[in-house]
């Protein structure tokens, strides 16, 4: 019923693609999915169910065609059924229409959504309340609707998706098409005192102003000049916080992309201008060379900690959506050294599909059919199970470790800034603090989860809300452009097993110390309650 409501709302809007163009793009989309994705049928009931849904999608296209935005939106339920949080199409106006939905900042606590911030003084009474209903539709029903818009790796990811939908007017109206033309929206909450109440918000004229939150007793390292920074957070200088907000704004990330010929020029220039507060130079290479370096930051981190004999390191990944995971190996190199990286990598594996279309889109990457590490030669469009075989094999331990080291050497060679340090080995495993804690929330995702699982396997303690990423899931996303609409189909081409020992039905990596609503309340709903909890854990467990 919800899907039909979405479709009915589309037909009334402007069109810019005719039916034939839409069908052609949809067939191109399915061709790319089936040739590139490792298993688009696994979560959706098999191949027959996949194609049944696809034909239902084709028959739903109106004779008059659709606008590009509406076309993107009708693909979403089909793509969501694949069950891959990295596979989707985003309507262009999701990026360009910044109108506010609910004028609230929302976060996940346990399996609920609570108000962590507001954009107007008149709504301060909503702080700390949990969300119950929107226009009479329960949160549980909204979560079911959200599953038909974007796939979720687990329930925490779906809660995060719903929060993003509620905060954007265009997404909110997609979730609630039955109220698309109303000017007000009624929302029911449950306060921290246990009482329920309802608030009406006036839509369409809401502006996102400075956020009003509860006061924090914690001062975080500033990210004005970089998305990865560190500083002491206690007076005794025993505990350092390393704050990593993003994994696609560091220099080595762009060096890696440059190696493969995949330049993300706009991102590089915007990153430079954000941190340097001046226009970027004409030369893209110069722009990349002047981006903040993870190598420099992490070298300074371990040198500082060793000089001060720092006992504790807190790694803050709470807001990190991911990017390029190489930053994990860079950090591990300085903290633990190559041997620990090899040990950790030996506990997981990936299965890759070498699709012809992938290499057409990524011309800088070459298909190697007869690699030294391969058990047997591969041809284009084959699946590559070599890492799985290596993981399952109990033979030739040193050979396995040698292969992983070669992969690590190759990764370093893609990033000249890190390679210079890596080849000298001077700061390898320079300093390992006694205790490492990683902070997570539902927004810790993709490559941020990659870092999380590396440290979890290195005996770090996890504190916070579970990551929205499943332990074993599809990974390594790539964009593919559809011919007529110009829309990007984002798609994965690997299946990653970070924790192969877990059952298939386990889709959450639980923290050692879970943040609960009662715990949050005991910290006066401090925006940095996870940090307070981590310090409390360190104090009780190790002192």
Summarize the structure.
With 543 residues, the protein is of the alpha+beta class. It has helices at 2-10, 19-36, 47-59, 68-80, 92-96, 139-146, 155-167, 169-175, 251-259, 265-276, 284-289, 294-308, 326-335, 338-345, 356-361, 386-392, 397-413, 416-424, 447-456, 517-522, 529-542, and strands at 88-89, 104-109, 112-118, 130-134, 137-138, 184-190, 196-202, 212-213, 228-232, 239-244, 312-316, 349-353, 383-384, 435-440, 461-464, 472-481, 488-497, 513-514. Among the domains are: 2-96, no CATH class; 104-213, Pdz3 Domain, CATH 2.30.42.10; 214-250 and 292-336 and 432-470 and 507-543, 2-enoyl-CoA Hydratase, Chain A, domain 1, CATH 3.90.226.
User: Could you tell me the number of beta strands?
Assistant: 18
CATH architecture of the domain at 214-250 and 292-336 and 432-470 and 507-543: Alpha-Beta Complex
For the report, how would you describe the main beta sheet? 6 strands, mixed
Q: Which sequence of strands runs across the widest sheet?
A: 9-10-11-14-15-18
User: Which CATH C-level class of the domain at 214-250 and 292-336 and 432-470 and 507-543 is it?
Assistant: Alpha Beta
The helix content is 25-40%
The geometry reads as globular
Question: What proportion of the residues form beta strands (DSSP E)?
Answer: 15-25%
The fold-level CATH name of the domain at 214-250 and 292-336 and 432-470 and 507-543 is 2-enoyl-CoA Hydratase, Chain A, domain 1
Distance between the termini: 57 Å
Write down the overall mean pLDDT: 92
> Could you give me the name of the CATH homologous superfamily of the domain at 214-250 and 292-336 and 432-470 and 507-543?
2-enoyl-CoA Hydratase, Chain A, domain 1
Number of helices: 21
**Secondary structure category:** alpha+beta
Unreliable segments of 5+ consecutive residues: 1-14
